[in-house]
Specification:
The protein is mainly α. It has twelve helices and no strands. Bound molecules: heme C (HEC) (2 copies). The site of one heme C has 24 residues, from helix 3, helix 4, helix 5 and helix 7.
């Protein structure tokens, strides 16, 4: 008799723990479409930290990152950005950075999305691993956000790009999304904000979406560090496929 009452008790206890938030569902491995869950998980912060964590946190970094390979062409602050070694497309040496001035020969983080939260935390914080970045891990919430981003925020490059490198997605579905979400800041033609003022001519949304669709998609999904730009996934609740539609339409501007 005693044994039979054991299971329901456990179930009730679990239900209470879940309802008060002690147990969360953030152990999910695959990316999902539920905007609310993303928000709870802090994945927007993680996406922006991946982009340029020292800008998000307002801290200074010095010299070149110890893991940056000597044969790489960059130096200084940029070498601290996760994207500089692991890529905007999350597949490092197998993606956009397979050659050119950003080449490091380092693999991406995409394969690591199936690792446990504990393992990812260890990779990011263990001094022996070399990631170090004391200023970043001083607050465990930052590490948690990055771990969540790697486990839940990455998008499969094959769902974004065709084999010939062109972007999948439907520009006709992307147009109304662009006009309702982006146009108020970037203009209907995408050129209200000039991303590179040093360069002649305007480098707006259309220019960047064609020149670097991987970076543009990351910015669309998570926002731009240090600006009021929203995250299409978290703040606007768009599905992964809709963010690809937005990218495809952006390329036409
Ligand atoms: C200067 C280069 C550099 C920077 C910057 C960098 N990493 Fe790494 N990272 C590496 C190297 C090198 C490895 C080991 C890759 C290997 O095992 O081949 C690695 C491995 C990883 C792995 C494990 C990948 C796997 O599949 O085992 C994760 C996850 C990771 N990095 C996340 C991050 C995050 C998040 C950031 C930003 C906070 C970051 N890295 C910044 C160089 C870098
Ligand atoms: C609330 C205003 C706002 C909204 C809405 C907004 N953005 Fe932005 N966005 C900005 C600002 C500000 C910047 C930073 C511009 C700069 O650095 O010159 C930026 C930067 C960007 C960048 C990166 C530029 C770079 O230098 O790397 C891209 C790409 C971009 N936005 C595209 C979009 C798209 C597409 C949408 C709609 C999904 C969107 N933005 C919505 C304000 C906004």
């Amino acid at each position: 008799m005693k044994k039979r009452s054991f299971k329901p008790t456990l179930a009730v206890a679990a239900a209470i723990l879940i309802s008060v938030g002690v147990i969360s569902f953030s152990d999910k491995v695959s990316a999902h479409e539920d905007a609310k869950e993303y928000e709870v998980a802090g994945v927007k912060l993680g996406g922006q930290l991946y982009d340029k964590w020292y800008k998000v946190l307002g801290v200074e970094v010095s010299g070149t990152h110890p893991l940056y390979p000597p044969e790489g062409k960059k130096s200084g602050d940029d070498t601290y950005r996760c994207k500089e070694c692991h890529g905007w497309d999350y597949i490092g040496k197998d993606g956009r950075y397979r050659k050119g001035s950003h080449y490091t020969g380092i693999k991406g983080v995409y394969d690591a999305r199936t690792k446990s939260a504990e393992e990812l935390t260890r990779i990011l914080t263990d001094p022996a691993g070399g990631h170090g970045m004391k200023e970043l891990s001083a607050d465990p919430a930052n590490v948690r956000a990055l771990v969540t981003f790697i486990r839940e925020g990455l998008i499969d490059p094959d769902s974004v790009f065709n084999a010939d490198g062109t972007v999948k997605g439907d520009p006709a579905r992307g147009k109304p999304l662009y006009e309702s979400v982006c146009a108020k800041c970037h203009g209907k033609d995408g050129n209200n904000l000039d991303f590179d003022k040093k360069d002649k001519g305007v480098q707006g949304v259309g220019w960047l979406a064609r020149d670097n669709p991987q970076e543009t998609l990351h910015k669309i999904r998570w926002g731009h560090p240090g600006s009021k730009m929203p995250s299409a996934v978290v703040d606007e609740g768009l599905k992964d496929s809709e963010t690809v539609d937005l990218l495809k339409y952006s390329q036409t501007l």
